[in-house]
Q: What sequence folds into this?
């Protein structure tokens, strides 16, 4: 019985040692990647106002005015991440994610003639978080993985307002393709950031992302 227990211990120890030991291209422990992700939530939440053109504007007060938002622009999620391969299945790292949302605000009278100046509005979100990645399939060229991260979002704009909120990033599935130092990745997941349920900065954003990776 002792011999069987000893044998099982040695087998388990050997398997764990092999799992943690770099092998082949796994000797490349460090990886840096830069990429881009979609802003589906932001494009749905922030969009141009309805154009207020009235059939009979003369019935409105002479001093009537209404503000409209227009000329929206979105950067998408621009991100950079460093990862360290702790074992064959585990990577740890840190992520920086940046996005910008831009629009213009103008006031119009009852005849939809602009009054006053157009005001540009520029909003930015910067996310910083530690990340964990789990590789559950490793091949010489292809890897499949999932991961998560949790950190903080800094929201700021051109009106000198700043706010902080907790941020979360989930990567349900990712695929990395490449050999040697260079590779590419595509991921399906989501990023969210909200403050007490009252202020939602992101909810189901960065559903799809791609990146270019360099490892050494």
A:
């Amino acid at each position: 019985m002792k011999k069987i227990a000893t044998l099982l211990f040695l087998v388990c120890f050997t398997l764990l040692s092999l799992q943690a030991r770099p092998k082949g291209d796994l000797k490349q422990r460090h990886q840096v990647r830069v990429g881009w992700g979609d802003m589906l939530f932001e494009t749905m939440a922030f969009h141009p106002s309805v154009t207020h053109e009235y059939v009979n504007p003369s019935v409105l007060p002479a001093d009537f005015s209404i503000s409209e938002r227009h000329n929206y622009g979105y950067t998408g999620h621009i991100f950079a991440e460093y990862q360290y391969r702790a074992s064959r299945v585990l990577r740890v790292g840190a992520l920086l994610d940046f996005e910008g949302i831009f629009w213009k605000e103008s006031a119009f009278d009852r005849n939809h003639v602009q009054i006053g100046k157009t005001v540009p509005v520029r909003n930015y979100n910067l996310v910083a978080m530690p990340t964990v990645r789990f590789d559950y399939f490793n091949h010489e060229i292809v890897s499949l993985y999932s991961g998560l991260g949790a950190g903080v979002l800094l929201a700021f704009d051109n009106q000198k307002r700043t706010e902080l909120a907790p941020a979360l990033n989930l990567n349900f599935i990712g695929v990395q393709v490449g050999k040697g130092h260079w590779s590419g990745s595509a991921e399906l997941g989501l990023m969210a950031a909200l403050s007490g349920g009252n202020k939602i900065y992101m909810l189901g954003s960065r559903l799809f992302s791609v990146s270019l990776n360099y490892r050494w």
Observations:
- Confidence is low (pLDDT under 50) at residues 1-24.
- Helices lie at 2-20, 40-45.
